[in-house]
Amino acid sequence: MRDVTLRELFDADATRGDRLALSACGIYLDYSKNRVTDETLRLLLALAGESGLRARIDAMFAGEKINVTEGRAVLHTALRAPRRSSVTVDGADVVPAVHEVLARMAAFADTVRAGRWLGHTGAPIANIVNIGIGGSDLGPVMAHEALRHYADRELTFRFVSNVDGTDFVEATADLDPARTLFIVSSKTFTTAETMANARSARAWVLDALGDPAAVARHFVAVSTNAAEVGAFGIDVANMFGFWDWVGGRYSMDSAIGLSTMIAIGPAAFGELLAGFHAMDDHFRAAPFEANMPVLLGLLTVWYRNFFGARTQAVLPYDQYLKRFPAYLQQLTMESNGKSVTLDGRAVDYDTSPLYWGEPGTNGQHSFYQLIHQGTELVPCDFIAFTRSLNPIGEHHRLLTANVLAQAEALAFGKTADEVRAEGTPDWLVPHRVFAGNRPSNTLLADRLTPRALGSLVALYEHAVFVQGTIWEVNSFDQWGVELGKALAKTVAAELASDTELAHDSSTNALIRRFRAARDSTATTGTLDAASL
Ligand code: G6Q
Fold first, then answer.
1. Which of 61, 104, 293, 424 falls between 20 and 30 A from 209, CA-CA?
2. Is this prediction's pTM over 0.85?
3. Handedness of CA 173, 174, 177, 182 (dihedral sign)
4. Is 365 annotated in the active site?
5. Are strands 239-241 and 180-185 parallel, antiparallel or unpaired?
6. Measured in angstroms, how far is the CA atom of residue 458 from the centroid of ligand 1?
7. pLDDT exceeds cutoff 90 at 521
8. Does the beta carbon of 194 lie inside 6 Å of ligand 1?
């Protein structure tokens, strides 16, 4: 296939653009601009079959403990299971508990939205600050941006994740503590960054309001760890739970979505869940050749392992999806950025590509040059909507024209003859040639509704699962983040002391510089530039 071009494939089959396309859950996937033939697809589907994908899907949905390194089931699909369904883990049906939490979230969200959740001084809450990191932040942030159109504009939402104090200070600088509610979102309730931010938030509230009793009115928690929530001083009655079978990066539709529900209301949150669930049903039931997550996952494997593509661009042509690439980075790279198989063997093939992207058309005026004419093959996922939520003037037609034109230009390029025929002088011709044959998918939905967002996220969740199955990796653990965390604890203690250093010479030298700056600030009150 290396030498087969999209021009040839389209010339040979006038129906290709209609044939290699698929609709599911309100999403239309055009995958015709990929360097595949029917034969390629047949072989990729056979690979999925040989990899035991069907059994893996069944095992996941059935609540088997497929996250083997952590001994856990993987049941984000149960978070959006309808009330009357049942999903069993360790002999117990988890669906009633899911709906019990959803009902408590809805009651709380309604109270806040109605201005009936009062702060310590009796003033209604108007500002919601989610404190969390990683999976307890990226989903809520992405959903907040994506669903802003549906949000209650009387409420202000902020998100604090970074342990850099700047994040907290800037997020709260213009907020009135008497009208601010913090949602401390942490599955474990022990994550260093989140707990540091939560402590600063508590100090910020108490500084202003002066009474420890204020914590109960200004803090709620989303966690699986009731003991730590209570120890922090948050009333466990104001804790919204979830379960160890929900991975952080798969948790935006659990109680971690509390800020989303407060923003858009319980009914719209229900629509979001319905969108997730529709894609779950499709993934579970559709034959592989007509299964959107399966095809999307296989195409990534195709370019990664057969063409050596190192990255995958995700290019939403909708400003509301501006944080979607960042969200997908965690979902994809934390899930499949692995180099050992489920049974601990080192892989001798590549696993996850790097995911990256920016909304169109901004990306066109920055990095698209490399995608068109650079030396890297960058498969692209274009995401677009037939109708805009903000249909002013000509904007949507222009936006749409750009996404369609980019996919066309990447696929078919412009030959030297075509460039010459435009009257381009010979010396300039090579610069103006577009080789083309650069693959893309186009994902098209009608409008960015909560339901559409749910289906879109679930599509990628399941595509990641398909990739992980082919690569035989555990898509649900993340041991790679542990070492840095452990070392940071040691270094944090060393930065506050003058103990002997036993790191490598580079780390030792860097720590000494921070210590020098610390000492000079302590003695003079200002930083002595010479110490740096
Ligand atoms: C996601 C990861 C990770 C996690 C954060 C926050 O899959 O596990 O990003 O979400 O480390 O963890 P807590 O929710 O426990 O604070």
1. 104
2. yes
3. negative
4. yes
5. unpaired
6. 19
7. no
8. yes
